[in-house]
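Write out the 3D structure for:
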Amino acid sequence: QVQLVESGGGLVQAGGSLRLSCTASGRTSSTVGIGWFRQAPGKERGFVASIDWTGDRIYYTNSVKGRFTISRDNANYTVYLQMNSLKPGDTALYYCAARYRESGSYDSWGQGTQVTVSS
């Protein structure tokens, strides 16, 4: 099993930036990558971005392309989500999740970090 800890959330004005971090520990060798997801009040949790540990596969949801950048630090099993040009619509609880090699699914989740963007 893999444990995930997120950090870096906070309150920022529209147009500002934040960088989220997700650090994995435990059986990290059983995972192929990390994804970021977010859930706003009253809405379902949705995909934001993902990266595999090789860095070869990076994906973004359309609404964040050009504004968010996902990156990794394999030495520390940490994945970052740099968020620029933030909008009030980006306000949500952000989660990172580990995708497992065997299942291909995101089966381990962090506790979430709150991002609030004021207008």
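The chain is about 0% helix and 60% strand.
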